[in-house]
Specification:
Largest sheet: 6 strands, mixed
Helix content: 10-25%
Number of helices: 4
Number of strands: 35
Distance between the termini: 30 Å
Length: about 575
Amino acid sequence: MKCKFLLMLLSSAVALQAALIKDVRFNCTKTCQMEFQFASDKNLPTFFQKYDNASKTLTVGFSESDFALGIGNYDIDASSPFVHSMSVSKEVYRGMNFLMIRMPVGASINSDKNAISLDKSSFFLKFASKNGKPWTLSKLFASKKAAAAKAAREEEKRLAAERKAAEKQAALDRKAAEKQAELDRKAAREEEKRMAAERKAAEKAARENLAQAAAPASASALLPGLKEMTVLIGSGMEQFRLVASNPLEIAQVSNPNGAFVITVATKGPDKSPVFKVSTGALVRSVFWDANGLNIQLSPGARPVILVQDGALILQTSENAIRRDGFVFWSARPNGIYVRDWMKSPDPVPEFSDFVKSYEKDSKKVVASAQTFHLRPVVRELIVVADETEFYAAPSEKSQVMQRVVFGDRLVNMDLTGLYRKVQLGNKIGYVNRRAVSFTDELSAVQMERLRKVDQERGETLTQGMKPVGSALDELYEDRVTYSSFGRRDPFVEIKGLVEEGINIDQVELVGIIWEAEEPVAILVETKNPGVSYTIKEGDKIMNGKVLKITQTDVLFLIQEFGVSRRYSMGLPDKFGGQK
């Protein structure tokens, strides 16, 4: 009984206020040690250390503590035999908030059995090795912050110069485009004049042909037995077309022989001169012999051969001409006609000119930075309101993507003011933070109702549910490490102690103000209803704090005799009686 009484007095004396680590220093004046400077020598936290040999990482933790420089990563010295860097984060372990400091270390630190000591508000972690380079974390942080700011200013200057250069280049491009458009219009006018001249010449040629048809027959410009030969080059292909006096059939045409000659077995003279084709790279010449009409191809040519409407057509891909347009060549009994609609090729810039331009206009990279992201542990949220909106943005005026009801599961992503960013299936949106709770924040009545909802839906029962654990769960051994850090001896008699804070065993919940920006609960003393209290989330009470306020319940976190527990106090509602 005496021991229990002393422990009760001890628990009433512990103030639940987070300790603040102002700075971290390292020096090797006598022995090498790290100094964690606390803002006060009051309410110093519980401490533990853990060394992971696989990753060469020393992890230290302080319960209910804050870090003045903020959560994040801090580079120190990657070549140091002691501490290379520090990663500071907050995590929950066994119901308590821990400030975790993970430090990749060198060969001089290889154990978690390092000695500790306390001098007023300074906590020391001592190492066996010597000869380390001293540093102060706040100074390193300030120096790197200043360097980052300077780099940002230099980057802004560089971007401004690039924008100015881009605007100048855009103006030049506009002028060049306008000039090119004028040249194109001029070329179109010239082309129109040329086509008009060609039409006039074609009309004149037609009249001459009519006159020649009426005149006595004259010598033909083609070989006997042929009406027309044409060559068409353009769009990546070359085509040769031959029309004989007698219609041709595909059965009369042979494949190219070893001399690249195609023979057409058709009626004609036994012998003729060689007619050389002056245009194209497919057919070189045409001549008659005793076997028929011979078409000599260029060496290596392998054309497609077909006969259409009695005319022989040879076609192959064209790779020799690197210009846009068409070339048309036609040989008829009354003469040979050539039309060239090819554009001049665009000039190819010299590589030396390109290098000069590149060196003149090149930009130097000023600085670069590496970004680190901390990934929080994913936790599940339960919808505790009867029904609420699932918004596309953190505002009640934004689009409602759908409505969610009591018992729906959401994945917690972030907190934005009065709204939580959550994921529902493959959708990401926002819900009012008052309408959802974590599993470990549910009251007994809400847990019972959720169990019934799960049974109705045929889903897994919620009995035995527990919150998603911290990443530390696998890191620590199953043991409790305690350091008094200068706290009062629990077996020393307490004199003149005055209890502070609301004793929840002596009050009852009479109302909840829910529509306010921050929910407020109203408590009254059981024995003296004239004395009332108003509390909100995060307020301190005797041996604990207010953890969560919902529309029907208040959830408290109580810490007694080194053990944390949750206690809920609720209003009567339609789902159950007084909690």
